[in-house]
Structure formats: structure tokens, C-alpha cells
């Protein structure tokens, strides 16, 4: 179960991080982080299509996390104890499934008449992969899920996904991040210009949200 995160505390830490009541998509390119859960990520992607600027290019971003376990009969074994050829074959199957999934996301954009780019990388940690991709590719605008759709309520104002929380704290300050749940805008982390005397202190913030520790 994901922890409840009070985003008002983030706002207190920096005047440059603000919660908004209206979504804003203004960049020439906007990246949308999509995952293996097609149902949830499809809703996030549809929100972006509906709220983007007319000429905005949507960049579908997926971080593929190769499985560290390989099916063997009725059980799954750690990849480290399997033959390299078996592991390689299974990971190849995973990548093929990933490409098929990304094509489904791409088709949603194509049907809406949206100019689309598809980007995917591999990483052992999905949220860290997103953070590193933002830095390496100078991403200025990102949209991602705030929580699973089943956790949505009309009163929701907090981030509940550990991935969302991590990205919110660790992504480059130059990237604006909007968090969505079930096609509803939840929270925005504005581009930040932090002063040396006023930095985000994640450890202090977690102390006030002990369930994250």
C-alpha cells in the first residue's frame, strides 16, 4: 500500500514549488512517463492529449526494468542462477512485449492526430531511470502518474506513488512535473531555482512522513 504524502510540506520547503488548481501544458515537447499498467498510463496519456498546447509534441517515455527472476516451470528463479542463454532469451521476450505496449500508447496519440515520439531506456530502478533521463536529455516538462487509479478520490491532493515522490524530489530543477491520477490533475512541481540557503531537505520531509522511511 502506498503511503499518503502531504504535498503542502513540499510547498513550505520552497516557494518555487507550487500546487495549482489548473493544469498547464505549454512546452514544445512534453514527456509522458508510461508504465506496464496500460490501463493507468493510458489515462495519463489521454489527459496530456486533451490539455496540451496545439503544437506540442508528445514524447512517450518508458523505463524498462528487466526482470531479475526468470520463469522456470511453475516457479521463478533468480536470473543470477540461470544459464545466461536462458536469461537472455527471457529478457528478449520482455523487450518484445515492451515494444508492443509502446505501440499501443503510440496508436492512442496517432488516432488523436498528435505528433509523437517514443523513447525507452532500461534501468534497474524505474524512478531513477526517469531522473537520469531528464538530466541526460534536458527534459523541461514531464507528466506522470501520482498514484494508481484505484487510489483516486475527488479530494485527492497528495502524491501516493513512491515513484512519483522520488521523481518529485530528485528530478532536475529545470524540469516542470505534473502529476495526474485517473485523468485528473493532482499536483505540479514547477521549475525550481533554489537558493543555496533554501534547499529541499528530503530527510527532513520524510521525518514528517515516517511511513516513507
Q: Can you walk me through this structure?
A:
- Helix 2 packs parallel to helix 3 and helix 4 (126-136) runs parallel beside helix 5.
- It is globular and about 45 Å long.
- The protein is an alpha/beta fold and 213 residues long.
- It has one domain (7-66, 116-212): Rossmann fold (3-Layer(aba) Sandwich), CATH 3.40.50.
- Helices cover 35% and strands 21% of the residues.
- Strand 7 (176-181) and strand 8 form a beta hairpin.
- The strands form 2 sheets. The chain has a 6-stranded mixed sheet. It has a two-stranded antiparallel sheet with strand order 3-4.
- It contains 6 helices and 8 strands.
CATH topology call? Rossmann fold
Measured distance between first and last alpha carbons: 14 Å
- Bin the helical content: 25-40%
What is the strand content?
Answer: 15-25%
Total count of domains: 1
Structural class: alpha/beta
Quickly name the level 1 CATH class. Answer: Alpha Beta
Tell me, rounded to a whole number, the average pLDDT: 78
Helix run count: 6
- The oligomeric state is single chain
The main sheet orders its strands as 5-2-1-6-7-8
Main pleated sheet: 6 strands, mixed
Cα-atom Rg, whole angstroms? 18 Å
Please give the CATH architecture: 3-Layer(aba) Sandwich
Q: What is the H/E string?
A: HEHEEEHEHEHEEH
Give the total of beta strands. 8
What is the 3D shape?
globular
| Weakly predicted, low-confidence segments | 1-22, 194-200, 208-213
Amino acid at each position: 500500500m502506498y503511503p499518503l504524502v502531504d504535498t503542502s510540506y513540499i510547498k513550505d520547503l520552497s516557494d518555487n514549488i507550487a500546487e495549482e488548481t489548473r493544469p498547464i501544458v505549454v512546452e514544445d515537447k512534453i514527456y509522458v512517463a508510461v508504465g506496464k499498467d496500460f490501463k493507468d498510463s493510458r489515462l495519463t496519456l489521454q489527459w496530456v492529449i486533451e490539455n496540451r498546447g496545439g503544437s506540442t509534441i508528445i514524447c512517450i517515455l518508458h523505463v524498462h526494468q528487466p526482470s531479475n527472476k526468470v520463469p522456470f516451470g511453475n516457479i521463478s528463479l533468480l536470473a543470477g542462477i540461470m544459464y545466461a542463454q536462458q536469461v537472455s532469451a527471457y529478457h528478449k521476450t520482455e523487450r518484445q512485449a515492451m515494444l508492443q505496449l509502446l505501440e499501443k500508447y503510440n496508436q492512442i496519440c496517432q488516432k488523436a492526430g498528435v505528433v509523437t515520439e517514443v523513447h525507452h531506456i532500461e534501468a534497474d530502478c524505474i524512478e531513477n531511470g526517469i531522473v537520469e533521463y531528464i538530466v541526460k536529455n534536458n527534459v523541461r516538462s514531464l507528466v506522470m502518474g501520482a498514484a494508481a487509479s484505484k487510489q483516486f478520490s475527488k479530494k485527492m491532493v497528495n502524491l501516493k506513488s513512491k515513484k512519483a515522490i522520488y521523481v518529485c524530489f530528485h528530478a532536475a530543477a529545470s524540469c516542470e512535473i505534473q502529476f495526474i491520477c485517473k485523468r485528473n490533475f493532482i499536483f505540479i512541481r514547477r521549475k525550481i531555482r533554489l537558493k543555496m540557503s533554501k534547499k529541499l531537505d528530503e530527510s527532513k520531509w520524510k521525518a514528517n512522513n515516517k511511513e516513507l522511511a
